[in-house]
Amino acid sequence: MLEKYDLKDNNWLKNTFAIREKWSMAYGRNIFSAGMQSTQLRDFHKYNVSTHESGREHAVVVKQSTKVLSCSCKLFEFSGVLCGHALKILNTLNVKDKISDHYILKRWTQNAET
């Protein structure tokens, strides 16, 4: 973006982004970047999923190399259950034969401790 608008030498932008590790989580809590740089984000694809009933739109980000998903509704992070938005994207990507082990929590397996 800096190159696109010829802002590579802009001092204000350089200083602002030089202190980004000090930015408050309030501004970046819902940003899924996993510490990736913009050049590394090419492996990610963003899908927007909406339902007819509510009209709400959720963003599902997929890392193509591992098929790991993150949805803006955060249901998996909250309860450990994949949301319908993520399942719809897996269906669209034709990932039907096996759900990644990343989504099978130990508490849902035979090895779960009681």
Please tag this protein with its features.
114 residues, alpha+beta, 3-stranded antiparallel sheet, 3 helices, 3 strands, 19% helix, 16% strand, elongated, nucleus, zinc
Quick structural summary:
With 114 residues, the protein is an alpha+beta fold.
Low-confidence sequence ranges: 32-40
How much beta, percentage-wise?
15-25%
Structural class assignment: alpha+beta
The H/E string reads HEEEHH
- Helical run tally: 3
Oligomeric category: single chain
Can you list the strand order of the major beta sheet? 1-2-3
* Residue-averaged pLDDT: 75
The backbone outline, from C-alpha atoms, is elongated
The whole-angstrom Rg is 18 Å
Let me know the number of strands.
Answer: 3
Which range best describes the helical content: under 10%, 10-25%, 25-40%, 40-55%, 55-70% or over 70%? 10-25%
Q: How far is it from the N-terminal to the C-terminal residue, by CA?
A: 52 Å
Characterize the main sheet. Answer: 3 strands, antiparallel
Subcellular location: Nucleus
GO molecular function, one term: zinc ion binding
Keywords: Metal-binding, Nucleus, Zinc, Zinc-finger
Protein name: Protein FAR1-RELATED SEQUENCE
